[in-house]
From TrEMBL:
Keywords from the named record: Autocatalytic cleavage, Calcium, Carboxypeptidase, Cell membrane, Developmental protein, Hydrolase, Membrane, Metal-binding, Protease
Protein family: Belongs to the hedgehog family.
Annotated Hedgehog N-terminal signalling domain residues: 138-274
GO molecular function ontology, one term from the record: carboxypeptidase activity
Protein name: D-Ala-D-Ala carboxypeptidase family metallohydrolase
Entry superkingdom: Bacteria
Location(s), subcellular: Cell membrane
Pfam families for the chain: HH_signal
Length: 278
């Protein structure tokens, strides 16, 4: 485990004691959550990962000099993935402290040729998501509600209102726009949403060579969504890959999580994303 984590952090200074402490905290956290988590509680695993990441980060920062900015990574396991491998090893690791966690990690490394099948997310030192697993149909990231993650709906933004004037028009050649209404309405969105859609388009071009991101809807002035929809404010977008292949939506949703949208939902025939106001 520790060896795998170590190998996965090529920019780290391997001689740094703080890095070894970071690695131990990460390994113990990973083992605990991969063992005690269950398949139905991935959201809880991610929340716990966030709490442990914050604690380890604050401890490292408290020890560090000004300007300390490493690219260390925090691995969040898929809930319950290691039960079949670990057996009682975790109790040994927990009772004997970080050095035992590292030893257990070496034994784990013999069992797994790659850490990837066990990882749900990888965060950088600042908590941004670097790698996310595919999002299953019907699931959303983060685990909390859209209103909690992106902020409650404030109501319909009408054309010509001051709020409408604050929207921007997405004219990005790397994004295919459906423009269902033929009015350009689907291109209207908040600046934050437009910026993230542009970043996601680059991720899509890299993940699916020859393909582009497709935008089916953003701002909706026509009341086509539920009463609390963030589409009415231009804070939500519906997306697919331009071949409309549903088999790509789980990966598209994962790329959206990595891009930094505040809430991502894998719906039946598209991925819905939303962002906070401002
Ligand atoms: Zn939507």
């Amino acid at each position: 485990m520790a060896g795998l984590l170590h190998d996965a952090q090529p920019d780290a200074d391997v001689t740094d004691e703080r890095f070894d402490a970071w690695l131990s905290a990460n390994a113990l956290s990973f083992l605990e959550e991969a063992y005690y988590g269950t398949s139905g509680e991935q959201g809880e695993t991610v929340r716990e990962g966030h709490a442990q990441h914050r604690g380890a980060r604050e401890a490292v920062l408290a020890l560090s000099d000004a300007g300390f900015a490493p690219v260390w990574r925090w691995f969040v396991p898929r809930a319950g993935t290691l039960q079949i491998y670990l057996g009682g090893l975790l109790d040994e690791a927990s009772s004997a402290g970080p050095s035992a966690a590292l030893r257990i990690g070496e034994r784990l490394a013999d069992l797994a040729s790659s850490i990837t099948p066990f990882v749900d997310q990888i965060w950088d030192f600042d908590g941004a998501v670097l790698v996310a697993a595919d999002v299953p149909l019907g699931e959303h990231v983060p685990a909390r509600t859209e209103a909690d993650a992106s902020g409650a709906a404030a109501g319909v933004v009408a054309a010509g209102s001051p709020e409408f004037d604050a929207l921007v028009r997405l004219d990005d050649p790397t994004v295919v726009v459906k423009d269902e209404e033929g009015s350009g309405a689907d291109r209207m969105m908040t600046p934050r949403l437009a910026e993230l859609v542009g970043v996601l388009a680059a991720h899509v071009a890299q993940a699916f060579p020859g393909r582009r991101l497709r935008l089916t809807e953003a701002w909706d002035p026509d009341g086509e969504h539920s009463h609390s929809s963030l589409h009415y404010e231009g804070r939500a977008a519906d997306l697919t890959v331009d071949d409309r292949d549903r088999a790509k939506l789980g990966r598209l949703a994962a790329l959206a999580v990595q891009t930094g949208f505040d809430w991502v939902l894998h719906e039946n025939d598209h991925v819905h994303v939303s962002v906070r106001a401002g």
